[in-house]
Amino acid sequence: MSVAAAAPSSGYRITAPLLHLSDAIAAVLLAADLVVVCVSVLLRFLFNAPVEWSDDVARGLMVGSSFFGAASALARSENLGVAFFIDRLPSGTRRVVDSVGALLVTIVSGYVAFNAIKMGWLTSGQTSGSGLPLEWTFYPMGVGALFMTVFAFELFCSRRVSDMIAGIVATGIIVGIYLAWDALAPNSVPSSQALMLVGFFLTLFGGLPIGFALALAALIFIWVEGTLPGVIFAQQMARGIDNFVLLAIPFFILVGYLMESNGMSVRLIELLQRAVGRMRGGLNVVMVMSMVLFSGISGSKMADVAAVGSVLIPAARRSRQNPGGAVALLAASAVMAETIPPCINLIILGFVANLSIGGLFVAGMFPAALMAAALIAVSIIFGKRPAVTEEAEPRSTVTGLWTGAIASFGLIFMIFFGFKSGFATATEISAFAAVYAIAVGSLLFRELSWRGLAHCMVNSATRSGLVLFIVAAAQSLAFILTLQQVPHTVGDFMLAISGSHGVWLFMLMSIVVLVVMGSVLEGAAALIIFGPLLLPVAVKLGIDPLHFGVVLVIAMGLGLFAPPLGLGLYGACLIGNVPIEQTIKPIMGYLGLLLLCLLVIAFVPVISTALPHAMGY
What we know:
- By secondary structure, the protein is mainly alpha-helical.
- The protein has 3 domains: 4-242, no CATH class; 246-463, no CATH class; 470-614, no CATH class.
- 76% of the residues lie in helices and 0% in strands.
- The protein has 26 helices and no strands.
- It is globular.
- 56% of the residues are buried.
């Protein structure tokens, strides 16, 4: 059910104006959010005059921006899905499965739009704690989902008429079989929980984008049970992202795009190439160190992979290095960087598991250093010293490179100083980091134009819309699981096993679960569903929650970049323009090394806990 596979090659002629409008709305809402947060912090800090309504406005703007951004991403077929299985289907079967998937995306989008708008109507006259109307959150969400429905319907209609009819018939047959079964032998019909689980995995492995597979799973339960109103579904989706903490995600993603646009990324990489590029395995060492630096600035791992890969993968080709091996190391470096702050997945885990985000940031630094040292050591031991003719000519003077490096390190210092000083929250720091990147690009480097800034805003809104839509959908499914007392059942089961076999077995089981689910799901979804399930059990067993959180995030990262299902690996291959088959052998070696590092981190807790305990977390 790969919606991406069906994007019309001729462009979006019918909905092109609507797509431009969706881009503009998402970008304007994101820019307004940035202004609201920065002004609020300055008024509070400089004049001791906090703006009471700023948090509510910022959250509402984020919900609207997320859904319009997700709509734009759907129009461009940028949604992530597992294509490994459907790529092996016969072409005729594949087209029918794709049509079913596009139809399901249209149905889910329409259901979200209808119920979000209905929720806005139902909450008319109600206000938030600061006195702002509640419908201001639901109406933009509903209109964004309505745009999403139009784009999804056009993607469905872009297929052959025969494929569309086959998709409608196949979907109707599935629904008809269930209705007939329920009417003729209701006692033998599988439970709503079983149908939800089966529906989720069938649609996920059928290529349906992950966010829609999660949302559809929750809807299957709601439709089969028939006791929950649809507005509850929309309410839970909004609740999943209606939190000030999550605003750090679009802001840090914006920082990543700004760095690429304003010249910071190129300057840093060139400086590293001059410093260590001539040593044995120098290009690989530069790649690992670049990912370390960029992960300390941009919260988005795919933005980091794009920034580093777009410069160093072509350099690997020029130096006659195996591009498959270079992409594999790039992906492994992204796994290593999962716990380098400010990481989006650490922010999400802190939010859903009620952990200190600053504490998670600090706890992840030594584990990341261990993995980075392992990757650098392997790069040097098995690498070769490049010939003089193989080095790409640097494009900037040494002075220019150091200027860029100092500006970049200033951004890193701002992030860590903000956390330690308590001057601002993670969200507020991310907003000032974005403003800093804009100022550096436009005033210092003079490489960031108004057009470039607008492009960064659109890209950031789209990318963060993708991530936050998955978070919203995962929240709706997590709500259903909570209603069914799944967390309680899983907790009792894990406690019973650990009580008879020891804490080490629980830790190993948790790692396996997150590696497997991290490869099947996008990272945020895996953490949202399994973080709250496993963390309370870990605390009962005496495991430090910050330590366990770091272990979960690394395990999820291993799965995210593991073949054959890891969506992160597919993204790295697309950026490096390398077939995934060329990366499988080298990536398995790197992932094996990182798995050994993870086991050391898991069973030597002091690696994760020493620094946060020393800093008072």
